[in-house]
Specification:
With 313 residues, the chain is mainly α. It has one domain. 68% of the residues lie in helices and 0% in strands. It is built from 13 helices and no strands. Helix 5 runs parallel beside helix 9 and helix 6 runs antiparallel to helix 8. The termini are far apart.
Length: 313
Amino acid sequence: MGFAPIAAIFPFHSWSPVGYAAAPAAASMMHAGVLKKLGHFTIIRICFYLFPTATQQWMPIIAVVCVINIFYGGLVAFLQKDTKFVVGYSSVAHMGYIFLGMASLNQISLTGAVFFLFADAMAMGLLFALAGYIYYQTHTLDIPSMGGGLASKMPFIATAFVIGSAASFGMPGAMNFIGELMVFLGSWRVYPVQTVLAAMAITITWAYYFRMIRDMFFGEPDPRMAHVVDARSLVDRLPLVLLASMTIFFGLYPAPFINVIQSGVMPILARMEAPAAPALPATAAEPASFSIEIDPPEEADAKPTADPVSGGK
């Protein structure tokens, strides 16, 4: 439970979306890509490895909590009007998928969960960088206030935003799709009900991302946004291109990264399957015993003596 707030698991998640919205774009990227992932990393490296028996006992409860995380984060994101809040609550929902893979405790699901950690870092980092650029140009994060039609003013930003959104809701060809698929395949035999519910919740993710893309980038341009310009310089475009390229490259060719992940996952699973033997209870020290060996008497070569009765006759 000590790492749950960092990992933004329900009900210890409330600080995370607010932190996303209040922080600058660079801090939001660091928060989504590094800080939140430290919670899952420490759970896997410390709790799984040092406390394997307790971890196995808690995982069925975590499997239920992660479904709440998925639906709660998705439904709240659907109701938001602020760009950063939508992306922030979307990230909270994604943490539920990662915890579902961790709770299943098998090679496929845990590998998928770790893969999903990196995938979510790339997608969320891209979306928060784009949200920061859009705020710099429009001076607002309120989606209705943008008026729509921004794609005609900033086609590069609109394309990158669609790529980041597609990666976030698990479109085939993106890293998130590989991570979600591995989590579902590994969790199906262990938690079939939770797996079906988590798969159904993807439709909520589609809904709020498609609506956000429509309301921000399509429709008639708002005259108040006539001053908006696209990202044109190499400094503005290069970070976005790198994040989008990583998402697509490992989504199409995940094998090298999966092999690296499995080299770290397998020892942890071996530890889970064969936890350390419990120590024997301490017993009182027995008093020292001394044994003295007594040699048997040697047989004397005595001569026969005279019979006292017979007088030796």
